[in-house]
């Protein structure tokens, strides 16, 4: 504990945007045992001071580029002075047999768990990458206030954001999600991923199920903002936000605002529409006085 992760961080791209910069980095990951890539929006305020950091976790098939190019988040982030970090969704610099056999498992589908099964456990440890290694790298290389951090995400990444926050309540000032997979134990995406990465031990599955974590949560008061489109084709079979709301409602320490957005689907036009609400929501917590 307290030792710095030694990584060979390289800045591979930088483009000016809203007075700040969108940058792409690659680094060797001692944890994932491969080369990883992440993108970051560094707001103009970071030229003179460290700024709060907001982690975005993307969904199935995505990489570090989807959010920067599609979400339209950086005007609001520049206004609020928030650094946004966008990691990849799985290890990329290593290949494992079967990692590209389907779009919802393996490459682009790490599910933000630490795998325990043979073949996957050596590399697919995205939960610890997001919560431990990546923040250490960000703290060393970027003008980020690590003690002012929040997290949000979409679909599989919404699942990841909820799980990371519930398991690390003192790490994140706030958490929000777009169309998150709220009860993966119950849905085909989650069952497939958890079987492949975690085996048959349902106790391991429960560590990465937001609804189960909410039902058993004993930490400090936590709030959640969730946007869910009513025309989302995955809503009924895969997402189960109502299960998460019920679990939070039964727990006096958890408060969730679920906004059902009429006519919106599962894609990035939906995210674009409400992204500024989420940036403002996180800014309120990130800039709150201690």
What can you see in these coordinates?
It is a single chain. Helix content is 33%, strand content 24%. A hairpin with a 4-residue loop joins β2 (20-29) and β3. It has helices at residues 66-70, 74-80, 126-141, 156-167, 188-198, 202-206, 210-215, 235-239, 241-249, 268-286, and strands spanning 10-17, 20-29, 34-42, 51-57, 83-87, 144-154, 175-178, 222-229, 254-261. The longest helix has 19 residues, at 268-286. It is globular. The two termini are 25 Å apart.
The best one-word shape is: globular
Order the strands across the largest sheet as they lie in space: 1-2-3-5-4-6-7-8-9
- Using only C-alpha atoms, the radius of gyration works out to 18 Å
- Estimated helix fraction: 25-40%
Number of strands: 9
Structural class: alpha/beta
Instruction: State the end-to-end CA separation.
Output: 25 Å
Mean pLDDT: 95
Largest sheet: 9 strands, mixed
Poorly predicted runs: none
Give the number of helices. 10
Order of helices and strands: EEEEHHEHEHEHHHEHHEH
Question: Which range does the strand content fall in?
Answer: 15-25%
Quickly list its features.
290 residues; alpha/beta
Write the layout of secondary structure elements.
Blueprint: E1 10-17, E2 20-29, E3 34-42, E4 51-57, H1 66-70, H2 74-80, E5 83-87, H3 126-141, E6 144-154, H4 156-167, E7 175-178, H5 188-198, H6 202-206, H7 210-215, E8 222-229, H8 235-239, H9 241-249, E9 254-261, H10 268-286
Parallel strand pairs: 4-5, 4-6, 6-7, 7-8, 8-9
Antiparallel strand pairs: 1-2, 2-3, 3-5
């Amino acid at each position: 504990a307290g030792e710095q992760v030694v990584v060979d961080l390289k800045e591979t791209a930088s483009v000016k945007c809203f007075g700040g910069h969108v940058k792409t980095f690659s680094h060797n990951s001692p944890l994932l045992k491969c080369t990883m890539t992440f993108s970051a929006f560094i707001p103009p305020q970071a030229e003179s001071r460290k700024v709060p950091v907001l982690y975005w976790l993307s969904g199935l098939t995505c990489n570090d580029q989807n959010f920067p190019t599609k979400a339209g988040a950086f005007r609001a982030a520049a206004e609020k002075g928030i650094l946004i970090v966008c990691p990849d969704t799985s290890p990329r610099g290593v290949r494992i047999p079967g990692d590209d056999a389907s779009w919802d498992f393996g490459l682009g589908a790490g599910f933000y768990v630490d795998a325990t099964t043979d073949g996957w456990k050596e590399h697919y440890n995205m939960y610890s990458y997001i919560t431990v290694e990546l923040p250490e790298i960000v703290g060393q290389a970027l003008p980020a206030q690590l003690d002012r951090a929040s997290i949000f995400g979409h679909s599989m990444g919404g699942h990841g954001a909820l799980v990371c926050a519930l398991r690390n309540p003192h790490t994140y000032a706030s958490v929000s999600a777009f169309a998150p997979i709220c009860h993966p134990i119950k849905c085909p995406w989650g069952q497939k991923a958890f079987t492949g990465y975690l085996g048959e031990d349902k106790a391991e599955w429960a560590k990465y199920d937001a609804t189960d974590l909410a039902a058993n949560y004993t930490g400090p008061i936590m709030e959640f903002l969730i946007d869910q489109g009513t025309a989302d084709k995955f809503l009924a079979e895969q997402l189960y936000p109502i299960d998460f709301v019920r679990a939070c409602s039964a727990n006096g320490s958890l408060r969730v605002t679920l906004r059902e957005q009429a006519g919106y689907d599962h894609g990035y036009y939906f995210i674009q529409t409400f992204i500024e609400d989420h940036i403002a929501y996180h800014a309120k917590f990130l800039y709150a006085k201690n």
